[in-house]
Design goal:
The structure is a single chain. The radius of gyration is 12 Å and the shape is globular. It contains three helices and no strands. The two termini are 19 Å apart. It has helices at 6-11, 28-42, 57-68.
């Protein structure tokens, strides 16, 4: 079980859009994966309507693997 920091917990609030920036190894991918799950489970938003923009192929691959594998 991961314990979230106050900033990570705030990023999970799905009532608004966010831009998430942080240092390497700070848990960004984990928080984003959790956020996507919160949106899909707790709203009527179809998966095809959830968007993520990342700046590296590695980060995109990690998000894909955590959400779809």
């Amino acid at each position: 079980m991961n314990i979230l920091t106050p900033h990570q917990s705030k990023a999970l609030a799905i009532d608004k859009s966010i831009s998430l920036t942080a240092n390497a190894g700070s848990g960004k991918t984990f928080v984003l994966a959790q956020r996507f799950l919160e949106i899909i489970i707790n709203t009527s938003t179809p998966l095809s309507q959830v968007a993520a923009i990342t700046f590296t192929e590695k980060a995109a691959g990690e998000l894909y693997k955590k959400n779809f594998c």
